[in-house]
Amino acid sequence: MADYRHSSWDEFQWEEEIRRDERRISRYYGELASCLDLPGEDELIMGQLSGETDLVPKGCSADALRGRAFRDEEDDEEGDDYDAPRRTSEIVLQTDQLAARWNLELIRDLDPRAFLAGLGISCAYAKLLARLIDFTDADEEQEKGLKISLLKRSLADQNELLGMFGRLEKFQPSLRDLADAHRQGLARIRERLLDRMIRLRQAK
Can you give the pTM of this predicted structure? Predict the structure, then answer.
């Protein structure tokens, strides 16, 4: 997610911004292959992206985006709030457990010919986790529109995951029980997300 807040935005404005954020990330990694190991690769790529108005966050100038490079882990560790405690939730913990379980099963049970598809599921779980962490971190009173939009995107991410498990199961039928276990786990999380959605929409 972008590192700024628009507390007055509704869910539809946030949906548009989240889609823009994802397009920008996708383009960044698309450009990375041709710039890898070049001096100042981040600045070079962000400079290219800043020239496309559809990729510049609302409320952020092209110049500001140009200077916003992706930081590495060492930079993050030097940040003032690196050790600050983060809020978590049962939904995040349950999703993290499913993702960790899948990563073990990917190595142990998956046909090597389907490894890339299995890795795609790992990435989809990571995307869902990031979305749910953003949801947990957002303030319910000040950022209600953001929280609703993140819930909607999380539900869409779950649908994507279910489709990936279905395709993998067709390729390797022996994974049926494993896929069913993940579907059941995702269904329980989905129920919690829908409940949170109802409560958010009913809140004044």
Answer: 0.77
